[in-house]
Amino acid sequence: MSSPASASGLESAYHRLHPKIRRWIRDQGWDELREIQARTIMEVLDGDRDILIAATTAAGKTEAAFLPILTSIADRKASGFSVLYVSPLKALINDQFRRLEELCESMEIPVVRWHGDAPQADKKKAMSKPDGIALITPESIEAMFVRRPADAKRLLSAADFIVVDELHSFLQGPRGLHVASLLRRIDAMAARPARRVGLSATIGDLGQARAWLRPADPDRVAELLAKSDAPELRLQVRGYVEPLDLDDPDHAEGGTGSEQDLPRRIALDSISDHLFETLRGENNLVFGGSRRTVESTADRLRRRSEKLNVPNEFYPHHGSLSKVLREELEDRLKDGRLPTTAVCTSTLELGVDIGSVKSVAQIGAPRSLASLRQRLGRTGRRRGTPSVLRIYLREPNIDQKSGILDRLRPNTIRSVAVVRLLLQGFVEEAGTSPEIASTLIHQILSVIVERGGIRPKPLYDLLSGPGPFASIAPADFANLLRHLGSRDVRFVEQAEDGTLMLGQEGEKTAQSRNFFAVFESGEEWRLTVGGRTLGTLPITYPVHKDEVREKSLAGAVVADHEPDGGSAVGDAVDVAQQGSDLRGSADLDMRKTYSRNDARAQRLDDRIPFLRLYRLRSLAHVVVSLSSANRGRSCGAMTISSPSSKRGSSKRSKDQSFIRSSAPSGRSFIARARSSNSTFGMDPFSSISSSSSVCGPSRPSKDAPFAAEATGVSTVEGAGSSSKMFASSSETTAVSR
């Protein structure tokens, strides 16, 4: 770990930068470099190690990495991208592009965005003359490997640096396994592996992050930690009790949430009252636990604005809204001229630049210290201003029939515990990823396509060395290949010389436009009104009865995903869509119902427990009509684009073991196969040791401490009818998550 930089060190680091970068710094009006920036400059320019930069949100991590990297590549003449910047979000790529474009233009260093929404002309130009910086999503790297393997080597293999932003988001889950495998494959085709630079504000275990960044040699990764300069924290925890026998805590305002006819107030009504009174006139973020909570809250706040005849300042932001609507809200926040509060899911949690906000509110108990720290970093960015956090809790009404868990007020206990750990600076380490086998199968198919066929031993050496699949023993890998080549699965087949090739089902899978992502997203309909796209309508789960009557449109699990690269920001939610074009109520008219075969999960065997079988969902169409509540007449037809409208519906036999849907948002690749005793005609691993090992993670996860003593939490006056405030005065210790 590097020591803090002295004043002379800061000055020395500044003069090490390229002259055009020094001029750019002066034009920005910077008084001096920050310590983390100076230390990173010296490490990049004087060393040859990989670098892990851990600093709080808005600490200048991006500049810390790119200023010395641009200095290093300024005079490079070799063909191919000099720098790969890998980001989990397209929106973050667009934001970084705006931040780098002016500086790179002055240095004559090309910079190109590479994802599903990026301009095709810019990508074609970069393909013809690859140079400079590529800001790219993991899915776009995968698409390049599969679609253009020769170009992938020409463009990616000569990189000097690979920068991984928001590294903590890749430390667990299938997407993290996927990215780690892609980096390993890029190194394999390079004459000299690129130096890796990881950026994050919330890392719980630095050793774990170093091992992810350079699995073969974690000790080669230099840790650069920014000195803590956290602003004053102002915190409030407010609790509300729900009415008895509540069926739906997020139902639209005025609804009952049950079969009763008379409306009654719920906790969210009182929470919205306090948000409206407290947040008006400033820029704020309100995080809901789901899209459904986000829409229901934003609608309540809009109603209060209309009732008082004041401009609405509260707008929803989540993955099901169209990109145009989301970007309009982001620009309004960043501009700062009009007071704006975004009620959002995790879409505004990561590092997209929306400027500084006065406060952050959260509806529901925080479930992750890393996530809460990321959200809290949005406030208190200006020197001398505090960070403001409000947590709103909803607890069930307690009566004689209530169980012991409800009586313990678990949401309150969890919130107090999180606050205690937050003050201690604790961040939980990333857990292990159970999707190892399904992600490995995805990469097996990808490599076979990229190489046009490959023998088992080189395939194993490429994928299963130090890295995401290090726990896969040769015997497990051999059994997996045999199973994928079985008569029932037919993902791969083997030529007489031992070369592995795609089988019949493997070809269908690899040719799918949804193959490039390893996360799963729900099927969606696209909704437009008057020619303007409002967003998408998830169809994975049925519509709630009150949503049909009130205002909501549907419920689902949705991820922001494009076939050529996208972001995976999804949470289990119901969508209650509203906006400037939707002022009336939305009634779902199921004139043609849709039917689907239910998804079926199936365990293959004890050695490969992670594979699932899905059946095709055949869908008819849904007609949605809008009626104006104020005018009593139709206010426009809503067009819904069917998932299969462009490609036609697929019809396959129910006996087939792998069936996919062609939804426009994309259903991610997850290995789906059936167990079988049949094997290859020849042993695919005759030259590999057959030592047995259970397929699974390399080390067990550690339960992070989650304990707190809660005394007198949130003694706040004020109550609203059946949704009343409560104060916690119990002492609780050793609370387990």
TrEMBL record:
Pfam families attached to this UniProt entry: DEAD (PF00270), Helicase_C (PF00271)
Tagged with keyword Hydrolase: yes
Region entry Disordered, spans: 633-665, 678-737
Composition-biased stretches (Low complexity): 684-699, 721-730
Every Helicase C-terminal domain range: 270-427
SMART domains registered for this protein in UniProt: DEXDc (SM00487), HELICc (SM00490)
UniProt signal peptide: none
Repeat in keyword set: no
Single annotated GO MF: helicase activity
CDD domains for this protein: DEXHc_LHR-like
Entry keyword set: ATP-binding, Helicase, Hydrolase, Nucleotide-binding
Domain of life: Bacteria
Residue ranges constituting the Helicase ATP-binding domain according to the UniProt record: 42-221
Cross-referenced InterPro entries: ATP-dep_Helicase (IPR052511), DEAD/DEAH_box_helicase_dom (IPR011545), Helicase_ATP-bd (IPR014001), Helicase_C-like (IPR001650), P-loop_NTPase (IPR027417)
Entries under PANTHER family matching the protein: ATP-DEPENDENT HELICASE LHR-RELATED (PTHR47962:SF5), ATP-DEPENDENT HELICASE LHR-RELATED-RELATED (PTHR47962)
Name of this protein: ATP-dependent Lhr-like helicase
Taxonomic source organism: Bradyrhizobium macuxiense
